[in-house]
């Protein structure tokens, strides 16, 4: 359930981040969403744990969750947002559907997680449905190689980020763990924005009410609620299974984008959605 709710949250965040990114650029969106995410997560842990920052985290937690934040929040999202500008979000999400397979394979080697034949079948069926829904006619990826590699980098970042999160989190609070990841991701973007001399653009975005509203809503459903749910999910099931359910975003996004961006819903998308849901349901079949 946490994995499925993560997919819903990421669907909403993707819509609002895309809206803001078209207006002010992906780099400004990335650094501001992480800054807001740190604040929202801190306020949450202040009420639930009595502390704004994760002062009780061990060095082990900080190291592995920090690396996870750099790989997932910084590199992974940097590559993904860049791929949007080259091959579009629809094709990028197709490539991102490879994340569950990457996660399952890495989890097998890195965490000694053993996936049953039923789980492997569920992953294959679910990912197949996603590919059918978002690939378009012929299921061919006729796009620039550079854009494809950026999207593949986004998928790898998400997969490795989840794996490292599970290793670094253990039984530690999922919300506090998310804040640690966000802190490292944020300061990575601070270094990048400083190196590229883009602070003026970031400050202009802060003064843009329309963009900040979209970024704020996207942050609530993305780096705040969504990522916290994703970490809770990997705490309670295999990372390959959790990642597969989270990868249903391209399916969940069909109806909202049809209303918001006037996109036509095709038979291929509906068929893909049915196959993906069937694949996900395999995990719950006893």
From TrEMBL:
Q: Which residues span the membrane?
A: 31-53, 59-81, 93-111, 117-135, 147-164, 176-195, 215-234, 240-259, 266-285
Q: Mind telling me what this protein is named?
A: Putative membrane protein
Which Gene3D superfamilies does UniProt cross-reference here? 1.10.3730.20
Q: Which InterPro entries match?
A: EamA_dom, EmrE-like
Q: Which UniProt keywords apply?
A: Membrane, Transmembrane, Transmembrane helix
One GO CC term, this protein: membrane
The residue ranges of the EamA domain are 3-133, 146-284
**Source domain of life:** Bacteria
- Pfam families named in the record: EamA
Keyword field contains Nucleotide-binding: no
């Amino acid at each position: 359930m946490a994995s499925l709710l993560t997919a819903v949250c990421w669907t909403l965040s993707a819509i609002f981040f895309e809206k803001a990114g078209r207006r002010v650029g992906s780099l400004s969106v990335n650094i501001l969403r992480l800054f807001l995410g740190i604040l929202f997560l801190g306020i949450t842990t202040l009420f639930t744990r009595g502390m704004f920052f994760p002062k009780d985290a061990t060095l082990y937690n900080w190291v592995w969750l920090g690396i996870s934040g750099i790989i997932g929040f910084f590199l992974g999202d940097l590559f993904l947002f860049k791929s949007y500008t080259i091959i579009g979000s629809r094709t990028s999400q197709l490539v991102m559907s490879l994340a569950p397979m990457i996660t399952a394979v890495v989890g097998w080697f890195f965490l000694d997680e053993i996936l049953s034949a039923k789980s492997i079948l569920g992953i294959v069926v679910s990912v197949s449905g996603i590919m059918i829904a978002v690939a378009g006619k012929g299921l061919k990826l006729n796009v620039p190689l550079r854009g494809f590699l950026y999207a593949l980098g986004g998928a790898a970042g998400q997969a490795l980020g989840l794996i490292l999160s599970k290793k670094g989190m253990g039984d530690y609070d999922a919300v506090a763990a998310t804040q640690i990841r966000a802190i490292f991701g944020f300061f990575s973007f601070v270094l990048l924005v400083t190196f590229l001399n883009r602070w003026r653009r970031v400050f202009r975005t802060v003064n843009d009410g329309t963009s900040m509203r979209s970024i704020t809503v996207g942050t609530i459903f993305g780096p705040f609620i969504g990522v916290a749910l994703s970490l809770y999910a990997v705490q309670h099931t295999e990372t390959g299974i959790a990642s597969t359910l989270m990868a249903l975003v391209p399916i969940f996004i069909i109806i909202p984008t049809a209303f918001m961006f006037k996109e036509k819903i095709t038979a291929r998308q509906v068929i893909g959605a049915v196959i993906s849901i069937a694949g996900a349901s395999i995990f719950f079949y006893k």
